[in-house]
Structure formats: C-alpha cells, structure tokens
C-alpha cells in the first residue's frame, strides 16, 4: 500500500475515535513516533542491518494523443514515454554499536515523554470523560 494511502487511512481512523481518544492521540503523538523508531531500531539490531527505501524510475510506453493537424479533426493517437516511480526496499549496512547507542537514547527519551504525557492524558480524561 502506498505511503500516502496509509497516511489517509490512519487520518481517517484517527478521526473516528471519541473526543477523549483524539485528545490523547494528539497529546501522545511524539511518544508514538519514538515507539515506532524504537521498533525500527530493534529490528535493525536483530537483523544486523537496516532497511532503506529508495525510489527508482522506469520508462514505459503509454498511449497519448498528438494535436489535430486540421481544425475540427480528432487528435491522432501515438505512443509516448512516461516515467513510472517505484519505491523499493534494500538492505543497508549499519554500525551496530551506534545503533545500540541510538536504541538506548530512544528508550530514555521514551521514558521522559511518557512521564511528560501523564498530566496531559489525565487532563484529556477529565475534559472528555467516557
């Protein structure tokens, strides 16, 4: 599924929550980002390498139309080259010591964000009781 479609799906699902859930999601956005980065870093360490997304382009022939030679005549079909974008995932070498240090740093940041989010979560629950 393309990234843009996933984003719209996520935004659509986020809009479906209760006011309390939307408030909590808004207040814990950074915490969820750090959780995603922790999961990615743990996967990198488990595999021994990272996964990197790159964009490659392919040329393909598509039907297009030339302007009509005479006024009122239909456009003439022809073939044109078009560039098609493809996102591929490939392995990338990483420094495992640096990745372990990054993981430790992310876990410290997560603990800090979780502590900071507690009052905001409590405020959301007080403002929007269920």
Could you name the key traits of this structure?
single chain; 4 helices
3D architecture notes:
The chain is an alpha+beta fold and 130 residues long. It has helices at 3-14, 19-27, 29-47, 96-127; strands at 50-66, 76-92. Strands 1-2 form a two-stranded antiparallel sheet. The radius of gyration is 24 Å and the shape is flat. It starts with a helix and ends with a helix. The model has no long low-confidence stretch (mean pLDDT 89).
Beginning-to-end CA distance, first to last residue: 34 Å
Count of helices?
4
Largest beta sheet: what is the strand line-up?
Answer: 1-2
Shape type: flat
Order of helices and strands: HHHEEH
Q: From the alpha-carbon coordinates, what is the Rg to the nearest angstrom?
A: 24 Å
Query: How many separate structural domains?
Result: 2
Largest sheet: 2 strands, antiparallel
Number of strands: 2
Average per-residue pLDDT, rounded, comes to 89
Q: Structural class, from helix and strand content?
A: alpha+beta
Low-confidence stretches: none
Helical fraction equals 55-70%
What fraction of residues sit in β-strands?
25-35%
Short description:
This protein is α+β, with helices and mostly antiparallel strands.
């Amino acid at each position: 599924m393309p990234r843009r479609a996933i984003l719209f799906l996520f935004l659509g699902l986020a809009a479906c929550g209760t006011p309390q859930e939307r408030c909590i999601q808004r207040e814990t956005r950074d915490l969820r980002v750090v959780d995603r980065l922790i999961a990615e870093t743990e996967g990198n360490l488990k595999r021994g390498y990272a996964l990197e997304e790159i964009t490659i382009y392919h040329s393909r022939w598509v039907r297009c139309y030339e302007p009509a030679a005479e006024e009122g005549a239909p456009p003439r079909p022809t073939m044109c080259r078009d560039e098609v974008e493809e996102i591929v995932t490939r392995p990338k070498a990483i420094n495992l010591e640096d990745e372990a240090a990054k993981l430790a740093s992310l876990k410290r940041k997560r603990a800090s964000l979780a502590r900071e989010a507690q009052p905001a979560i409590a405020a959301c629950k007080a403002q929007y009781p269920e």
